[in-house]
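Work Package 4 report. The design task specified in the project plan requires that, given a folded chain encoded as structure tokens, an amino acid be chosen for each position. We show below one input record used in the internal validation round.
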């Protein structure tokens, strides 16, 4: 691994644990799902942007299918909690959106780093998805996610694993 590249957990490794608050204020950890549920952990740049809205709509539409297979969806972005409340309400998102304003979770997963847009470099979230098994290990990592069709792609990858 190049020392200038951020560490990113790989398939087969345990998913880095982190704490978060649910929409109703309950404190949880990713490891709370271990032994009971699989998890789709997806990182996205910003609420209400076109790609992020597409991705959220698709996961929301398919949420019941995921839930019926014992799979919980968690979305992570640097937006503040207030933005997540508005995004969830407007888009009818049934799963948790996690605020990572300080980028600590994204750094644990190597999804925060340099980006380029129209010739300007800046730091931001790289759209990525981690499929985590009931044992807490990463089953699959999707890098450079294209929002359209991603939910279906994730469902196919999980198959009958969970």
């Amino acid at each position: 691994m190049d020392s200038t590249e951020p560490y990113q957990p790989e398939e087969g490794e345990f998913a880095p644990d982190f704490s978060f608050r649910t929409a109703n204020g309950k404190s949880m950890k990713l490891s709370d799902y271990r032994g009971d549920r699989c998890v789709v952990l997806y990182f996205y740049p910003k609420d209400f942007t076109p790609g992020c809205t597409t991705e959220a709509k698709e996961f929301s539409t398919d949420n019941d299918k995921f839930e019926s297979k014992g799979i919980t969806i968690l979305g992570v972005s640097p937006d503040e909690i207030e933005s997540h409340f508005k995004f969830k309400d407007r888009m009818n998102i049934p799963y948790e959106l996690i605020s990572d304003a300080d980028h600590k979770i994204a750094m644990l997963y190597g999804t925060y780093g340099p980006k380029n847009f129209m010739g300007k470099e800046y730091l931001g979230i790289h759209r990525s998805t981690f499929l985590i098994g009931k044992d807490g290990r990463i089953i699959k990592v999707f890098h450079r996610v294209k929002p359209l069709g991603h939910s279906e792609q994730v469902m196919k990858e999980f198959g009958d694993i969970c």
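The CA atoms of residues 47 and 87 lie 6 Å apart. Validation will be extended to a larger panel in the next phase.
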